[in-house]
Each structure stands twice: as C-alpha cells, then as structure tokens.
Amino acid sequence: MNPENEIDKTEALEPVETAAANVAEARGGVDGRRRPKWLLPLIAVVCAVVLVVAGVVGWNMYRGAKLAEAKEACATAADGVRNNANEYNALLNGDAADAAAVKAEQVKDSKTVESLGKELKASAPEYEGCVAENAQGLDAATVKLGEQADWYKAHEKSLSKAVKAVTESKDSKRLDDAKANLKAKLDEASKLLTDSDGKVQDNATRETLTNAIDAANKLKDANDATKIDKAHKTLEDAINGVNASVQAKTDADAQAAAAAAAGIGGSRARPPPAPPPAAAAQAQAQSTYSGGSSYSGNTYRRTGTGGSNAYRGTTSGGSGSNSGSGSTGGSASTTRPNLNGGHGIGTCVDGCASLPPIQH
Fold this sequence. Notes:
Strand content: 5-15%
Number of strands: 5
Low-confidence stretches: 1-24, 287-347
Number of helices: 9
Structural class: mainly alpha
Largest sheet: 3 strands, antiparallel
C-alpha cells in the first residue's frame, strides 16, 4: 500500500466538531476548563458603555456642529441687518434730511412733502445681535435679524421714493418759476428797448440789450432751470445798463440846459458900460446946481451955485413969464423954459438933455 494514501485516510477519519462541543468550549473549553460567570455580563457592560460613550460623543459632536452652524447663520443675518441699516441711515441723514427742509410752498405738489414726513416718522427696529448661547436661541435671533433686515430694506426703498418725489416736485416748481420770471423780464426788456430809442448816452447798451433779448427768447421754453436763470441774469444786467445810460443822458441834458439858462440870465443882468471920465464930470456939473433965473425983455439970465452955469440969451418978442409965453416976429408965441427960479436944486435924470444950450 501507498503510505500517503494511509495518511489521507487518517485525516479523513478525524472526528467532526459538534454543537455540544462548541457549548462545552464556551463554558470551559474543550479541554474541560470552565470560564468565570461574570465574564459575559462584563463584556455586555463594556459594550453598553462603549455604545453610550459613542452616543454621547456623537451627540456632542452633532450639537456642536448645529451650534456652529447656528452661529454662522446668525452672524450672516447680523451682517445683513448692519448693511441695510447703514444704507437706510445714510439716506436718512443725507438726502432725506435735505428734502425734509423743503417747505410745501417750494414744491409743485405739496402732498410729496406730507408723504416724506410720514416716512421720516417710522421707528427703526432695535438691534439685538447674536447673544444666545445655544443653537435654538441663535436660530430665533437669526429669524428676527432677517425681519429687521427686511424692514430696513423696505423702508430704505420707500424713503428713497419719497425723497425723489419731493426733489422732482421742487425742481418742477423751480422750472415753472424760472420760465415765468424770464417771460416777465423779456416783456420789461422789450418795452425798455422801444422806449429808450434816442434817449441813451451810449447806444452800445441798447445793442447789448437786443442780444440779451434774442438769447433769452431761445431759452424761454427750455427745461433747464439753471440755463434759464442765467439768461434772466444776463437780461437783467443789460436792462440795468440801458437804464444807467438813459439816466446819464438825462443828467447831461439837464446840466446843459442849466448852463444855457445861466448864460442868458447873466447877459441880461450885466450893467451898461460906464461913461468916459470927462463925460461923467460934465454930466455931474450939469446935473447938480442951485440958484435962480430971471427973464426980462429980450435977455434972460440964470445963475447957479453948484457950478458956473451963468448964461444969457436973447429972443424976440415982448416980455414973458416963466411959462415962456411971448411972440416971435411980432405974432408967434413960443414956449420958454422955466427960468424963474422954479428949478431949485435937483438931479438930472436924462443926462440933462432937456436943458437949453448954454451960451458962453
């Protein structure tokens, strides 16, 4: 026989382990030794502890993750509130504050001012932040912060709309007023241009006014209040220039008239030229005298004390009195000067031209 075949048979005949043998091994081993009774409960307890510890660790890990997640969400919500609040406050303290200073009479529609006033009275929510220590509290804070962010966003939008309405209404009224003012100034300028023809000292001022009127007419229907106001100012300056030129000419004409009047009056008030010294002395000698006159026959005499004015004269006719009655050629009557002392002392008022010639 083959020895190898005999070994294989021997291995094939080895006994097969039974369930009873396994139980016996668990109790004490196949070798017959018994294990302690507390071993299995201990193993169970250890397994339970391990399971509990694993559960606790797992729960803590889960709770930590949820807490970190809640904190992150709350921080994001807080950032959103801060950003929206900053935008709202910037508008509130900037353009809204400027629009709030606008009065109802400064806008075309006063309702825009009322709407803005209502928006400015809105109360902003109180920011609390992420102060909770657990995920549940943080989640609640996140929800509240989200609502606050929405409030700021909505009110920033409505406030911006109200500010825009006030600004546009103000600009609209300004444009209407600018057009009305320019129209009135154009009417004034056109009238002045007509009335000042030939009445200005410098005609260049009227040319400047004409150019200003032409430029203003091109802008009277424009929609740019700034340009219209500028045209109004240019037109007003031109009007002032013409008025000043008119006044300058009026003053110059008045001065010329006054100077002419003063020249005519001066010529009328000038005294006549004085006579030569010799003529003045003769007039003085003839004009002042005293004494008497006598007339008899054909001879009359006159003596004076104010000068040597003694003279004689002859005439034909009879005797006469100081009335000068007598006859010439026997029949004609003549008028003789009053030489019978009726003159007395006096002063000639006509240069003594009425006295008869003196006979030397």
